[in-house]
Design brief:
18 helices, alpha/beta, about 425 residues, five-stranded mixed beta sheet
């Protein structure tokens, strides 16, 4: 995929444009209120999802009737072939045969809204409505590297990769979308071990459901993707998980319910109804008593078409890494709710993704982070939807505070420059 490098002026123009759209919507009703009546303006919309366990809340909301419960019985949840296809269908919108929103990598909201990855660099105003999940992605490696001892520390791969490079061989390492979460986890993990992801390996893009098959035929040395694909890799004996992303950054955000701003602005009541349905599904998915049923539902042919055995372990925090190591720890499980802390779209977490994308040259260093976050993050709607469900919203604000990573690095959203300065390996523009 070719990434267009926009100018600073085009980025700032994009951010201002999106901010203006959001501001106009807030001023549409007295006092910034959104809903004069709780009745949704429409009874449905079209949501996209990739076959990844973290899309479960969208599917469960459909299967359990939560959309209908909140006045949205005609919601469609449609499988997407890849994150590139998701982007293209999002640009079309449902009126053009595409989608109105759905399950997407959190940084994609910023990448779409600034036009960074869109055709002709055309901004697509987007909103982050809620965070779907935390943790439970995997950094997996081909079985050939099992003897290196690589784990949370990627450094043991440095010598092996250098030898391949010296022999004139490529070192394909896969992620799912440039600038997306899996790309950033892979880059962070490699760089922390002294491996420069821009020079020492060859990063390639592979759709999540195709990861295992590609490693099986030797098309990659390592990959980062969400579940159930890391667990399936281990179950098939093709490779092993060096580390889970929750070990890299505990309780890290992952996918979001992202929607076209145009749809949200035109359907404020339906937006809240949609959010309440998905939030109820998140609460359902978080309940340990529902894990087995959840795995059975999402594994069905019409959803993921994946055996329950490839799903169930890691959603419970029971991890077979595939290299002789096992763990049973709720901290490693995929989180969907955590009292609302998982679902709430903390603006400080968006700031990290934008900062990390600056680190690797996807965004220019002078992109206005705050303007971009404020134009796209609708935590205000989350608070309204939560209140509609009777959820205590005290304690939620713009910042989750200072974040700490496995290598001791910290990210203070109030001082992103210090975080960037602390990173010795980067590719800023």
């Amino acid at each position: 995929m070719t990434l267009i490098q926009p100018t600073r002026r085009s980025f700032l123009k994009s951010a201002v444009s999106v901010a203006a759209t959001a501001a106009a919507a807030r001023l549409a009703l007295p006092g910034g209120a959104w809903a004069a009546t709780p009745t949704p303006e429409v009874t449905g919309c079209t949501l996209g999802y990739i076959a990844l366990t973290d899309s479960a809340p969208l599917i469960i909301a459909y299967e359990k009737g939560f959309y209908a419960k909140h006045g949205m019985p005609d919601v469609k949840v449609e499988k997407q072939a890849s994150w590139g296809a998701t982007r293209d269908n999002m640009a079309l919108g449902s009126a053009g045969g595409g989608i109105d929103g759905g399950h997407i990598l959190r940084p994609k909201v910023h990448l779409y809204a600034t036009g960074k990855v869109m055709q002709n660099n055309q901004p697509l105003p987007m909103y982050t409505l809620l965070n779907l999940n935390e943790d439970c992605q995997g950094l997996s490696v081909a079985q050939a590297y099992a003897e290196t001892g690589v784990g949370l520390d990627s450094a043991p791969l440095r010598e092996a990769f250098a030898a391949k490079r010296a022999a004139g061989q490529e070192i394909p390492v896969a992620m799912t979308f440039p600038g997306g979460t899996h790309d950033l986890w892979m880059r962070y993990w490699l760089a922390a071990g002294g491996i420069d992801p821009t020079k020492d390996v060859d990063l390639i893009v592979v759709p999540p459901p195709q990861m295992v098959a590609n490693m099986k035929v030797g098309n990659m040395e390592a990959f980062c993707v969400g579940e159930p694909w890391n667990e399936q890799l281990v179950n098939q004996g093709i490779g092993f998980t060096a580390a889970t992303t929750g070990e890299v950054w505990a309780n890290h955000p992952e996918k979001v319910l992202g929607m076209r701003a145009e749809w949200v602005d035109a359907n404020p009541n339906a937006t809240l109804a949609l959010m309440m349905a998905v939030m109820e599904a998140q609460i359902w998915c978080e309940d340990a008593a529902n894990k087995d049923e959840m795995a059975e539902i999402i594994g069905r042919r019409q959803w993921y078409n994946v055996p329950v055995g490839d799903i169930i372990g890691r959603i419970k925090g029971e991890v077979n890494y595939g290299n002789g190591r096992t763990a049973s720890d709720p901290a490693l499980a995929m989180k969907f709710w955590r009292g609302g802390a998982t679902s709430f779209p903390w603006k400080s977490l968006d700031a990290w993704f934008i900062t990390e994308n600056k680190r690797w040259g996807y965004f220019p260093g002078d992109l206005d982070t705050k303007a971009t976050v404020d134009a796209t993050n609708r935590s205000d709607l989350w608070l309204q939807a939560a209140a509609g469900l009777g959820i205590d919203t005290s304690g939620f604000g713009d910042s989750r505070g200072v974040e700490t990573f496995f290598d001791g690095k910290t990210f203070d959203p109030a001082n992103a420059e210090a975080y960037l300065d602390s990173q010795s390996i980067k590719a800023m523009v």
